[in-house]
Amino acid sequence: MSFSVRNHTLELNGDAVEFVPTTNQGGAFRPQYLVLHYTAGMTGAGAVAWLAQPASQASAHLVIDRNGNVTQMVRFNRIAWHAGRSEWAGLEGMNRHSIGIELVNAGRLIKVGDTWQNWAGNVIPADQVVEAPHKHGNVVAGWHAYPAAQIKVALEVALALHSAYGFYDVVGHEDVSRGRRVDPGPAFPMLSFAARVLGRGD
């Protein structure tokens, strides 16, 4: 399996990945950063359907499902609406400076009796729950784990994007919108992921 970028679209083994266009996008830009998010939902199809609707007022360049399936929604040289009010490295409004990837993941969970649930009441199996504090807080909470297959594909995609655009950094929504967002959260191995993408070792 080999990802690459051609004409600002993602290809897998030489063929374009599934592309579901959204009107929720801005003008042309040159990406300098990669920002990772979670969808706070349970399925890739649901995330794509929502981001394709004008009413969502949101989008991402890519959605990566839990099984590793990838859907592109915005070409990489066009602005996607994924970061909102944000800043990083002296830049404000990271939509204008970054590619956004949405990872299908329920996110921060709620303990209801003996079960963990997401905001919509979906029960998350105990073996898919990580209990940890967020790096910007000290309260232990439950978080939906990221499957190995999803992380593997996300890394391969990020490496292909970095090869094409030469990112200055790879960060989370929680970093560029600190105090407002908490994704992708402590269940995602952000430090090692960013280090591998940028060639800084493990």
Automatic annotation (TrEMBL):
Keyword Transcription: no
Protein name (database record): N-acetylmuramoyl-L-alanine amidase
UniProt-listed Pfam families: Amidase_2
SUPFAM superfamilies (alphabetical): N-acetylmuramoyl-L-alanine amidase-like
Enzyme superclass (EC): hydrolase
UniProtKB keywords: Cell wall biogenesis/degradation, Hydrolase
A molecular function (GO) term: N-acetylmuramoyl-L-alanine amidase activity
Catalytic activity: Hydrolyzes the link between N-acetylmuramoyl residues and L-amino acid residues in certain cell-wall glycopeptides
Highest taxon of the lineage: Bacteria
Domain N-acetylmuramoyl-L-alanine amidase: 20-185
Gene giving rise to this polypeptide: amiD_1
Upper classification of the organism: Bacteria, Pseudomonadati, Pseudomonadota, Alphaproteobacteria, Hyphomicrobiales
Biological processes, Gene Ontology terms: cell wall organization; peptidoglycan catabolic process; peptidoglycan turnover
Enzyme Commission number, as recorded: 3.5.1.28
